Amino acid sequence: MSTQHKQTAHQIRLLSRKNHVTNTSGLAPGHLQANLLILPSKHSQDFQNLCHRNPVSCPLLGLTKIGNPHTISPSTCIQSEDFDLRTDCPKYRVYKNGTYLETVTDLLPLWTDDYVGFLIGCSFSFEDALSAAGLKPRHQVSGTMVAMYKTRIPVLASGIFKGATCVVSMRPYREQDVERVREVTRPYLATHGEPVDWGWEALQRLGIRDIERPDFGEKQLFEEGEVPVFWACGVTPQMAVMAAGDKIDGLVFAHEPGHMLLTDFTVKDLEMLGRPLYN
Amino acid sequence: MSTQHKQTAHQIRLLSRKNHVTNTSGLAPGHLQANLLILPSKHSQDFQNLCHRNPVSCPLLGLTKIGNPHTISPSTCIQSEDFDLRTDCPKYRVYKNGTYLETVTDLLPLWTDDYVGFLIGCSFSFEDALSAAGLKPRHQVSGTMVAMYKTRIPVLASGIFKGATCVVSMRPYREQDVERVREVTRPYLATHGEPVDWGWEALQRLGIRDIERPDFGEKQLFEEGEVPVFWACGVTPQMAVMAAGDKIDGLVFAHEPGHMLLTDFTVKDLEMLGRPLYN
């Protein structure tokens, strides 16, 4: 284990604030990592319903009250009093009228008291469980960014958010390991859970033209006998923002793909996350 | 309003038990109606996760304990002490190894103490809200069964349930009424919510070849200027059962499409259904 692996989620957030962190894959093992989407309050109900309707790609871990960048509900999600949603993610994307504008290191100059922030589970959260099972993700071995692809899986419409499709992350595994990979990631319902598809035939089903050319992140090398395994990805909400286009008033902010917000949720919180009211 | 419209959900269940009811569209207005899936307990966790991962097509309203056909959790879902899951739905489909076997009027001779029953929200639940808004569904006007179609929208895999696609129900509306139709049905998150697609172009996106030939129910007539509007449908779990095939040990039971179980949930319960733990 590197010293990095001993750092807490809080420490990673402080390092992110100082812009000393980029790719968060493998950081603060055992902690759930979050995608971000921050938008004007008038669109927050549509977006929250979008999460409810698409919990595999957009599993909601927590959200802020309007205009408050310091407190996430539920409070167990992020517990440090110095938390600031505008600085504690390594990098942020800025969208205007559904179009990507730029990537910035903090949102302090852009924030207004009308924004609502949503934290959405990230598949980095189950990567140490995969590693512990002898199934370490290739991008962690190679020190690259996970490969992500746009697909034709529909994101089911909610209000202004309609016509978007899912993004998936991809990790290569031997075909005979796929069922074990599914089992290991299945309990992580709140961070995308088990894969949505796998195998070389999945490329056609998902509408992925070229495995060598991911839409986000970096391409991954396949060893003999390996097949691509695809999980839903929390970059999907950014596709929904792009599909909504100029129906969105004002700027929207999101994390830069691969540059996640570390939460204080751990695998022990999974039982109560992504579950219904009764069980 | 016919006298039928004044009957309670409990009265409809008793009439269903006596096999005096077929199509339940329009019965006991204001009450949520449920699709059924009843399967051996060893598959219940996979199926429950399937519902969590696909809440638009498979919104879970309630479930039984193993082997108990009399009590649904949460208890507010069905409150009559004489309730029997094996008789109180008008008609049941029987599947063996994922293949449709027959339709029966009750499950008493087939039931064992190893079955778990799942109640899944039905779009009939929002039809009186549509009617109240002056948007009465065509099949209610014509006294036919709602038209249902298989699509290519993937049902996201859970354990043995993989490779299935969604079923949708269809109601014709004027193009200029679609946004209003979306608004009226949007709050019904627990009973499929707003449409998943609409317009004549949706046929190609959904993979529906012929609007005149629904896979379940009866074809609906279009008036000039009307377009098809599609909602996710609770027949979808039966597609998941068929896709699982012989991975399912034993018989599986479901409702006959259009022949729903009436619950005691009303529109007032929608706020707490289909929502996360925090809001």
From TrEMBL, chains A, B:
Keyword Nuclease on entry: no
Keywords attached to this entry: Lyase
GO-annotated molecular function: D-glutamate cyclase activity
Top-level lineage group: Eukaryota
InterPro entries (alphabetical): D-Glu_cyclase (IPR009906), Putative_hydro-lyase (IPR038021), UPF0317 (IPR016938)
GO BP of this protein: glutamate metabolic process
Family: Belongs to the D-glutamate cyclase family.
Protein name: DUF1445 domain protein
UniProt organism field: Aspergillus leporis
